[in-house]
Amino acid sequence: MTTAPSPSGRHRELVDAIRHHDYRYYVLDAPEIPDHEYDALFRELEGLERDHPELVTPDSPTRRVGGAVAEGFPEVRHEAPMLSLQSIHDEAELREFTDRMEREVGREDLDYCLEPKFDGLSVELVYEQGRFRRGATRGNGTVGEDITANLRTVRSLPLRLAGDGTPARLAVRGEAVLPVADFERMNDGLAQSGKDTFKNPRNAAAGSLRQLDPAVAAARPLALYAYDILVWDDGALPAPETQSGVLRTLAGLGFRVAPESRGDGGGETGRRSVWWEVGRGPDQVLAYHRLLIEQRDRFAVELDGAVVKLDRIADQEELGERSRNPRWAVAFKFPPGQAETALLAIDVQVGRTGKLTPVARLDPVLVSGVTVSRATLHNEGMVRALDAGPGDRVRIQRAGDVIPQVVEVVARAREEGAAPWSMPPACPECDRPVQAEGANHFCSGGWSCPAQRKARLVHFVGKGGMEIETLGDELVELLVECGFVRSPADLYRLTREKLLSVPPQPAGRPFDPAGAAELVRRLGAARNAPLARVLVALGLPGVGPTRAEAMANEFDLAALRTFSERPDGEEPAGHAEEALKALASPVKRALLEDLVEAGVIEGAPRARRGEESFRWEPDVLAAAVARFADKNALDLPRVSEGIAADLVNSGRVARPADLFELTEADLLALPERRRRPFAEKSAANLLRELEESRTVRLDRFLFALGIPHVGQHVARVLAARYGSLERLGSASREDLLEVHEIGEQVADAVTGFFSDEANLRELQDLADSGVAPVWEATGESTLSGLRIVLTGTLAELTREEAGELIERHGGRVVSSVSSRTSLVVAGDKAGSKLEKARGLGVPVGGEEELRRLAAGDVTLEEFAAAETGTGDET
Ligand code: IVH
Of 706, 738, 853, 858, which sits most exposed with the smallest number of CB within 10 A? Predict the structure, then answer.
């Protein structure tokens, strides 16, 4: 005799089965069951979890889209620094690299792990006890953004690690990518609905992962390829000893990894399919690189090169890293893609500093996967050197993310003797005179040139500056165009009323063909909707999905319908009294009968009595239609309140039943929507952000001002040296030149900036509007130059806090122990790193020692001497 499993038993079965099929489908690309069977399992699990909410765990497959819409992303410090790779481009550079490896490792013909270089977004994934805990973007390599909720929606990311041997703590690095075909489909959809498209799959992947609404991220078919282990902490399980072992281990833990190369292996000519493999010596690396270029179109995702890594981890650790790159790996980039096309015109763009840049307007052409319609020509000299002009046929090239360039003119249109192209004498944006300065030309309009004004404001509020996140480039331009903002100080004079009065802007058509087809399909499917969903769709007071489920178990539709008609008669037994009363209202009765007529509710349409004359008020009808669209009701994509109102106001939907008769043509014909750029909420957000930015950190403010040659780093140096705007403003050129890292260019730019009347007025204006940058001197450089490894769990400090402490005092957190490590800070359950440090004689301390070193109570030398003196006790 078999007994039905308990709910928790069945739950476990379903979760295991779905996880298994997710892995087959999303990671191995080899499903075992048809989609509808999978859907049935999934629905069963959803139902079970609805009935038994106590069974839901955060790593249930139903919880991939669980996170709420975020306000922004909190920052997180990485478990270990996320390094980037030095690029090489040709055989000579490769041989230089392999020679150096052989020299430094002291062996010949080393093994290299050769991998495709995915062109996506690098992410860190942290697992504890086998469960996915957190995921973050690379950020600056030390601190990234917490995008856990969005990463959970990526189906090839395991929420729970597979296999028996899972380490206690694991941090993995991988690349989130959008397959090219999905990218193209997504862009077509965006284009058809009049929205901005993404330039390439990488931007699209990044845009999707940085969506504040995880549901949007979930709808984008992102994939994740894992390629590195950043942290492997486990008392018992040893970490892999080679990079090829890392890839196999990651695959065994359930990650998607590029498959291993197939074919005769290693050979120069044989028919091989290359993905990743181990190659020995430079010749095999070169052969791999060549084949990867030949076969790059076979990959579903964009690649931009090969990655060459020393295979043995011990060798990697010995070599360590240099600034932000490991010394044991390089990115061997693909040669840039080229194409020929027509040069339609040469436009002149005006930048933030007033610099005029000639830009080639091109007949759009595909270059290694990206449509290019513009290419930079840098300056007049470059146009002259190419001797390019409108009507020419040109060859363009695009390498990685750099702006496409014109390489040469293939066929010239200009007639013999005609004048070559030259810069206009007046700015194309403000008509003020153009001045030549060296090889470049500048508009003399300054703040009065609209192009410069927009660009300066965009920079002012942008990343690294005031960081007003609600103000994207387009909104800044709009505020300038409305005349609300002419200078940075104007931002601080914005009011709610002003923002709400910014006129509505075109927001694209509500449906593209795919969206329209999908909605029509769902409207058809609504005819079989379960009763609980119909109850939610009716919008009865207090009836959400859970209540509706309970009611659906108690009543049937016939009873509800009869009751709605004869409310004085016998009430169906049950507790939903208030909800039932509502059913007797004329609106709900009309709604119910309409749904019967549309076939959503089964039953014979009644001859209409009172309802016949029921007149739907447009707003009541629109609200009812929008309610149908709810996820827990009939789940109709894109039928927002606005669209519902459009459907009603355009006469396409005069009563609820009409909705179910809509055709794709009806939907495609809906007019373009217009949206107010600022609504109550976004206006409030902007004002709050501006308010908070009044006490911006001094270095960010200096960067925001856009002083020539003052980038983020120089701004920090200046802030640290001068501590206030006043002191910086009165510093002399000589004084500035005394500052370490400040050269003549910066000294001239800074003194120039502070002696310009217009700039001083602007600064005064900002101060009058309450902008008062602050600077708190950071810790002393007690750890300056030290390379510190953190391992194990510290007692009080989190890893983030320990990392911050180290950096604030001038030290650097490094990931692996080598003879060049200054100190290992070991906590509870420290594993192999601790052993290695002892083996190499690297000083080891705990949290307390770290604090004392940072506080300057003890120097590293004193500490190391004391440590060797007391011997080995932990
Ligand atoms: S290894 C220390 N392997 O390329 C190891 N990177 O700068 C550093 N990338 O930001 C990375 N595919 O996002 C590695 N198979 C691969 C990769 C890869 C793509 C990206 C990564 C990194 C950039 C190189």
Answer: 738
Query: Could you tell me the pTM of the whole model?
Result: 0.54
The mean predicted confidence, pLDDT, of the chain is 87
Are the beta carbons of 97 and 90 closer than 8 angstroms? Answer: no
Which residues lie across from 378 on neighbouring strands? none
Edge to edge, what strands does the sheet with 844-845 contain? Answer: 812-814, 787-791, 823-826, 844-845
Distance 311 CA to ligand 1 centre (A): 15
pLDDT the model gives residue 874 = 36
Cα pseudo-dihedral 673, 674, 677, 681, rounded to 10: -60
User: Which element (helix H / strand E) includes 664?
Assistant: helix 664-668
| Sign (positive or negative) of CA dihedral 471, 475, 476, 480 | negative
Instruction: Write the residue with the smallest CA distance to atom 6 of ligand 1.
Output: 117
Q: Which two tokens stand for residue 391?
A: 């009507």
Please choose, from the candidates 405, 402, 400, the residue with its C-alpha nearest in 3D space to the C-alpha of residue 119: 400
Which residue, judged by its Cα, is nearest atom 4 of ligand 1?
A: 117
Between the CA of 119 and the centroid of ligand 1 the distance, in Å, is 9
Distance CA(844)–CA(834), nearest Å, equals 8
Give the residues surrounding ligand 1 with Cβ less than 6 Å away: 83-85, 115, 117-118, 122, 175, 227-228, 307, 326, 329, 331
Pocket perturbation via mutation, ligand 1, pick of 137, 261, 307, 317 by most ligand atoms within 8 A of CB: 307
Closest to 39 measured CA to CA, from 6, 62, 63, 56: 62
Beta bridge partners of 135: 125
C-alpha to C-alpha distance for 111 and 285, rounded to whole angstroms = 10
pLDDT at position 575:
55
Rg (CA), the chain: 32
Tell me which of 251-260, 284-293, 388-397, 602-611 is least confident. 602-611
137 has a pLDDT exceeding 60: yes
Closest C-alpha residue for ligand 1 atom 11 = 84
Q: Cite the beta strand spans of 178-254 per DSSP E.
A: 223-233
Q: From ligand 1's centre to the CA of 84, what distance in Å?
A: 6
- Residue numbers annotated as active site: 117
